[in-house]
């Protein structure tokens, strides 16, 4: 007998009220939510992820912060229209616009925690689009060349072919790819939550589109500017990250010039799932160090 798959969870199920709010930007609908009490704290996800990865951390910190989660255009619960570019240049501009929209009611700069692509997105927003942060925590981020796994590069070079894969083959390839981001291995429910946004006609096309538009020129633009970042910054990295090796933590720290790098053992690229206690401890410690929290 074949064991039935678990019901596909929504990436927004773990969030109070889901990602029920929308920000309209250049024809895109950016899904977001905010909850809690205290100074603003914004989480940025990467690829091929969504805000679902940060939801437990947002809930845990919502007693001290007004936490904000959002899905990048082309990801998760945000719009995935084929005519819209989703490259890192677009995402950096989108984040800066979203922060300006939120900031009308803040009166203070937010603390930002970013993972994977979210690192380049948050850095571009700050260094190229005048976004201001109270602090920045970079977790296993895309920031320095080279980046992208062998599978990622293969798909990028042949995206139209992969976009035509039969749905079952696409799902198998997607699950295998996502699984390699975890050091400890993913539970069935975790894997399902991570892949479900990329299923169906729109999701499958969006998955290969965002890889096809990946271009290292967007991080090449950042590299000579990293030393100009003038906010308190911490770099965290999974010691067993095979997607973006842990040596990048030291390189990034050196390029920033003022950011301490810390490695988290027994954690791969999906550090949120591999080492949740260690990551939560590091985040709380960092935010306390920069004097953040409910006042």
Structure described in brief:
Pfam families: Abhydrolase_6. With about 300 residues, this protein is an alpha/beta fold. It is built from 12 helices and 8 strands.
Core attributes:
AB_hydrolase_fold, disordered N terminus, 295 residues, globular, 39% helix, 12 helices, eight-stranded mixed sheet, AB_hydrolase_1, Oxidoreductase, AB_hydrolase_sf, 8 strands, Rossmann fold, alpha/beta
Task: Give a structural overview.
- With 295 residues, this protein is of the alpha/beta class.
- It has a domain at 21-146 and 219-289: Rossmann fold.
- Helix content is 39%, strand content 16%.
- The protein has twelve helices and eight strands.
- It has helices at 55-61, 88-103, 117-129, 150-157, 159-163, 167-179, 188-195, 200-212, 217-220, 247-256, 271-274, 276-289; strands at 21-25, 28-36, 40-44, 66-70, 111-116, 135-141, 233-238, 260-264.
- The chain has an eight-stranded mixed sheet, with helices on both faces.
- Helix 2 (88-103) crosses helix 3 and helix 6 packs across helix 7.
- The longest helix has 16 residues, at 88-103.
- It is globular and about 50 Å long.
- It starts with 20 loop residues before the first strand and ends in a 6-residue tail after the last helix.
- InterPro entries: AB_hydrolase_1 (IPR000073), AB_hydrolase_fold (IPR029058), AB_hydrolase_sf (IPR050266).
- This is Oxidoreductase.
- Residues 41-280 form the AB hydrolase-1 domain.
- It comes from Isoptericola cucumis.
- Pfam families: Abhydrolase_6.
């Amino acid at each position: 007998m074949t064991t039935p798959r678990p019901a596909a969870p929504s990436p927004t199920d773990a969030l109070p009220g889901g990602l029920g709010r929308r920000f309209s930007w250049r024809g895109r609908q950016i899904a977001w939510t905010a909850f809690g009490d205290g100074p603003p704290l914004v989480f940025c996800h990467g690829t091929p992820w969504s805000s679902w990865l940060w939801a437990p951390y947002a809930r845990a910190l919502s007693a001290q912060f007004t936490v904000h989660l959002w899905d990048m255009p082309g990801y998760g619960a945000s719009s995935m229209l084929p005519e819209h570019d989703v490259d890192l240049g677009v995402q950096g501009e989108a984040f800066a616009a979203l922060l300006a929209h939120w900031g009308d009611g803040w009166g203070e700069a937010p603390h930002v925690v970013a993972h994977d692509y979210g690192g380049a997105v948050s850095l571009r927003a700050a260094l190229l689009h005048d976004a201001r942060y109270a602090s920045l925590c970079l977790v296993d981020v895309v920031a320095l060349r080279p980046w992208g796994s062998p599978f990622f590069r293969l798909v990028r070079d042949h995206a139209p072919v992969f976009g035509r894969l039969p749905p079952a083959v696409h799902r198998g390839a997607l699950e295998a790819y996502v699984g390699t981001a975890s050091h400890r291995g993913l539970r069935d429910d975790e894997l399902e939550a991570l892949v479900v946004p990329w299923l169906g006609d729109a999701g499958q096309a969006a998955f290969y589109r965002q890889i096809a538009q990946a271009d290292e020129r967007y991080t090449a633009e950042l590299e000579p500017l990293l030393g100009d970042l003038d906010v308190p910054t911490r770099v965290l990295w999974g010691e067993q990250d095979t997607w973006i090796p842990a040596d990048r933590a030291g390189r990034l720290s050196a390029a920033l010039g003022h950011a301490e790098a810390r490695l988290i053992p027994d954690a791969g690229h999906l550090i949120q799932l591999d080492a949740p206690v260690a990551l939560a401890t590091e985040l709380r410690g960092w935010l306390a160090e920069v004097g953040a929290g409910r006042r």
